Amino acid sequence: MIRLLFSAPERDWPVWRPHLIRACAARGIDVAITTNAAHPATVDYVAYNPGGGLTDFTPFTSLKAVLSLWAGVERIVGNPTIRTPLCRMVDPGLRAGMVEWVTGQVLRHHLGLDAHILRQDGEWRNDVVPPLASERRVGVLGLGELGLACAEALSALGFDVAGWTRRPRGAEMPTYAGPGGLEALLARSDIVVLLLPATPATENLLDAAALARLPQDAVVINPGRGPLIDDAALLAALDRGHIGHATLDVFRTEPLPPGHRYWSHPRVTVTPHVASATRPATAADAIAENIRRGETGAPFLHRVDRDQGY
Ligand code: NDP
Fold first, then answer.
1. How far is residue 184 from each of residues 192, 206, 213, 214, measured CA to CA in Å?
2. Exposure winner among 111, 129, 178, 268, fewest CB in 10 A?
3. 255: cis peptide before it, omega within 30°?
């Protein structure tokens, strides 16, 4: 019998429970799933959401792996009490949600929808017809599970897409890598989408110098993580009109404090970290599959590289 501790906010348990039971049964895993950490020494795997409040893994003496329920692992990757493999969440439902959100935000800005939606004032403004997607250059920073799917969806719509990643990769679009590549990618991005993880190497990546590389009136869309952006530099670039708009889903401090300038800036859209979410119906299979692998000696999927931080 495998013992899985589901460590997440209480409200998540009834939603996840049937999916975890189904996904484990489908793989022939005899599992007892609990939300009670009273007997840590008996736990084989922890399904982990930071909202569950678990921080000290020292008492989990039989632990085989920590399986993150989130794609972003910045809140757990540096936890020194974890001595087992740590795997992040890769979930088709999470990916599909992110593709829809990013596509929607890009189309909003590309089509200039605000000009009509925010001004239903009786004036017939037919002087501007939206350009075609092929005339719009989109840059995607981070071509991982989420960034690549978004880049491919935008390419399929006809956008002129290029990506930036740590290591060069064989994506079917122009791909840039390294600091020099970032400058080149930014210089050709009318709309830039940030889908990088928060690591020491990505902190303040979009600083004053990087923002200055973007073309006049460029749009910044950040569903990645708040620390990717130097907030003061972004606000300054918005204030002086260099950046046309920023749509921000993630922030250094969440919830974003009520008095923060992002809430009131006329060219900022704030969404409350809802770009996408792990979907239990599909994500339970990712958890169960890694338990199956752990039990059969196969390598875990999506194991986090602690040195790189993602
Ligand atoms: P992946 O780990 O699959 O992809 C990360 C990508 O970022 C890879 O292409 C990687 O490059 C690149 N990268 C990492 N570090 C650097 C660097 N220093 N320089 C250049 N490129 C770098 O992550 P996902 O696509 O699954 O998720 C991305 C992020 O999205 C998550 O970390 C999380 O922060 C965020 N997220 C936000 C959600 C929301 O609702 N707002 C929901 C879920 C996730 P390489 O391929 O070379 O390693």
1. 12, 14, 8, 9
2. 129
3. yes
What span, in angstroms and rounded, lies between the C-alpha atoms of 86 and 303? Answer: 6
Q: How far is the CA of 146 from the centre of ligand 1 (A)?
A: 7
Q: Are 281 and 93 in contact (CB under 8 A)?
A: yes
Amino acid at 254: E
Please report the beta strands in the chain, taking only residues with DSSP state E, as ranges in sequence order. Answer: 2-7, 31-34, 45-48, 65-68, 86-87, 137-141, 160-165, 175-177, 191-194, 218-222, 243-248, 268-270
pLDDT 10s digit of each residue in the chain, 310 long?
Answer: 999 999 999 999 999 999 999 999 999 999 999 999 999 999 999 999 999 999 999 999 999 999 999 999 999 999 999 999 999 999 999 999 999 999 999 999 999 999 999 899 999 999 989 999 999 999 999 999 999 999 999 999 999 999 999 987 776 899 999 989 999 999 999 999 999 999 999 999 999 999 999 999 999 999 999 999 999 999 999 999 999 999 999 999 999 999 999 999 999 999 999 999 999 999 999 999 999 999 999 999 999 999 999 9
Q: What are phi and psi of 133, to 5 degrees?
A: -55, -35
pTM of this prediction? Answer: 0.97
Quickly list DSSP for 252-308: SSSSPPTT-HHHH-TTEEE--S-S----HHHHHHHHHHHHHHHHHTPPPSSB--TTT
* Ligand 1 close to Cβ of residue 194 (< 6 A): no
Take residue 55 and report the two structure tokens written for it.
Answer: 């921080």
Contact 221, 229 (CB under 8 A): no
For the Cβ of 143 lying below 6 angstroms from any atom of ligand 1, the answer is: yes
Task: For residue 8, count other CB atoms closer than 10 A to its CB.
Answer: 22
Cα 204 to ligand 1 centre (Å): 15
The answer to whether the beta carbons of residues 291 and 4 sit under 8 Å apart is yes
